[in-house]
Amino acid sequence: MSGGGSGDGSSTGTADSGTATTGPCDIYGAGGTPCVAAHSTVRALYGSYAGNLYQVRRSDGTTRDIAVFARGGFANGAAQEAFCSGTTCVITVVYDQSGKGNDLWYQGSSVVAGSTQSSPAAAATESLHVGGSKVYSLYINAGNSYWRDGSQSGVPAGSQPEGIYMVTSGTHYNGGCCFDYGNSETDRKADGAGAMDAINFSSQCWFSGNAPCTGSGPWVQADLEWGLWAGGSTASNSNNVPMKSQYVTAMLKNNGTTEFTLQGGNAQSGGVATLYKGSLPGGYSPMKKQGAIVLGSGGDCCKPGGGANLSAGTFYEGAIVSGYPSDQADGLVQSNVVAAGYKP
Fold it and tell me: What is the dihedral of CA 239, 243, 244, 249, to 10 degrees?
């Protein structure tokens, strides 16, 4: 099941007027690094996208897809409110806008075979405004996570280069394992160094005995399996400073063989700072990515005998791209996020 709509537009205009606007995936595509998965509960990530963003399920078991108001525009939060009025709703799936079918269903659903220990996130915990429209976030607490095996639908594998970005919250996080978005294991087991390539946003300092973390977090880190990496080693990285703004842009790119880059910034203003750019950690080259997509947990969740699912975090939007994005493309994506107008 997929969100529908087109995922290849690059026209310009204003979403409020109902005409298409340029989205982050248009920018990445123009730079030769197309999105292979694009997810959001708040807006279209392509100027041409006119389909569904996510699905809510009421306490009586009925469901409703929540779409954008207009092509290239923002989520129809009013439709969610009307459908869920007088009852409670959860978000069962966040649809993929890329056209690859990489929809993220909650682990514990029948769509994610063999998954347990996870439940869908409540749909109305946090409202906000993006582009002037009232919308809702994917507000994840311990026990919530989403997953998709994208290994046969375009997600980079092995040592293929990859880029990832997401907009998250610098006020809702914890130190539990592991609030990730990105590339993970298809067998949902911790399969070794380099089996993952995901953004982690949390206050969890993995190598605490070596004190690699600056301040108290939260930090943009790379979950490469068998460790959350604030840099290329367990040594302190003073450049990877905490990201505490209300809305945070987090970026990770990995060329699969020699280097990776971490970037972060305020999703309401300014650019993204380079928090680390350099060599992969020892034992992580070449990368051994498997091509699943995880959101809200680590790679070894959630099946019988699987790892813990203790993380908290907020997801507004994000995408996975094939290839190693340019710094110029990353900067344009950040400008696009800022222009979207995230506000409480």
Answer: 150
